[in-house]
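Data deposition worksheet. Section B asks for the primary sequence of the deposited chain exactly as it was used as input, without tags or linkers unless they were present during the calculation. Section C holds the resulting structure in token form. Section D is free text for depositor observations; keep each observation to a single sentence. Incomplete worksheets are returned to the depositor.
Section A, Depositor: J.P.
Section B:
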Amino acid sequence: MTPERQKLESALHTLRLQFVQNLAAEVAKVDAQLLRWQAGDEAALGAAIALAHGLAGSGSLFGRHDVTVAARALEQLLCKLPDDWQLQLPAARLALLKLGQMATE
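Section C:
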């Protein structure tokens, strides 16, 4: 492996570690937006969906397929909340918990 390639791999490894270290904080942001939506802030649901979407993309970018799958599932559940919140809210909370647990793996 060339020195340039080693440097690149090292930088990517560092970014992947930072992504995982920041995952819990990002999940907390989604949770905060979801709580704001539950309190009546309609715009907060859109913010939660956007955050989940971003996590899905970041998971792909940093090689964490498990995060991508979990974040996409969360995003899909959040998109269903306005129409079926009584059924979808517990599922969304469970998906959010699962995603948060990935920060410790």
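Section D:
Residues 40 and 101 are 27 Å apart (CA to CA).
The radius of gyration is 16 Å.
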